[in-house]
Design a protein that fits this description.
- By secondary structure, this protein is mainly alpha-helical.
- 64% of the residues lie in helices and 3% in strands.
- The chain has eleven helices and two strands; from the N terminus they run αααββαααααααα.
- Strands 1-2 form a two-stranded antiparallel ribbon.
- β1 and β2 form a beta hairpin.
- α4 packs antiparallel against α10 and α9 runs antiparallel to α10.
- It starts with 16 loop residues before the first helix and ends in a 7-residue tail after the last helix.
Length: 258
Amino acid sequence: MTRQHLPAELLLAPDRLSDRLAELLRHRIDSGELRPLDRLPTEQELAERHGVSRTVVREAVSRLKSMGLLVSRQGSGVFVAPSSAARPLAFDPAVLHSLEAVVQVVEVRRALEGEVAALAASRASAEDVQRIEQALAAIDEAVAAGRDGVAEDLRFHRAVAEATGNPQFRHLLGFLEQYQRDAMKVTRANEATSRVLMEQVREEHHDIARAIAQRDVARAREAATLHMVNAARRIEEADASVRAALRDALEQPAQGQA
C-alpha cells in the first residue's frame, strides 16, 4: 500500500442526502417556520418537494426523531416536538464534512480523553483492565489480518471510558464516534503506509493502558491527552495525497438514489 494509492474501500463516505435533508428540516424548525406541534408533510410530499427518494426522507426524519426534534403519533403522522422537549446534543452534519471539522472533533476529544483516562486509572477494576488489554490485542489482530482496525480502535477507547464507572463518558464518546469513523478509515490507512506511524499509534495506546493498569492517574491523563494531540498532528502533517483522500471521503456527494 502506498500513500498515492489508498484503497477505495477505505475512503467510503456515508449517504449525504439524508444529512442534507435533515439539516434543512432542522433549520425550518429552528427558524420557527415549522412550529412546535406542527404536522410534517407526508413522506411522499417531502420526497417530491425535495427531489429525493422516500428512503432518504425516512432516514432524515429518523435522524430528527433521534435528536428529539420530531415525534410520531400513531395514525396521525409526524409532528414537530413540543418546545418543552429536551434536545440531545447534536452537531450539524453539513459542517462536519470537512478536514478542519475532523481536527476540531479531535480537539474536543482531547479535552475529554485525558480526564477519562485519569478517572479510569483511579477506578478501574481488574476486569476493566482486562477488557482494555483485550481491546489492545484486538487492534493488533485486525492490523495483522489486513483490516483497518477502526472498530477495534474505537472499542479500546470505549473500554477506557467504561473503566471510569461513569456511563455518561461512554455515551458522550460514543456520540463523537459517529463523526470520526470516515476520517479514521483514511487516517489509519495513512498510518498503515508508515511503520513509524503505526508504531507511534500502537505505543500511545499501550502507554494509556499501562498507566491505567498501574493506577498512575497523572500518567494516564498525560498519555491520553498526548494521544489526541498527536492524532490531530498526524492529520495536519499528512502529505497532500492523504489529505486529498480524507477530504474526498468527507465531502463526496451521496451515491444513492436522489
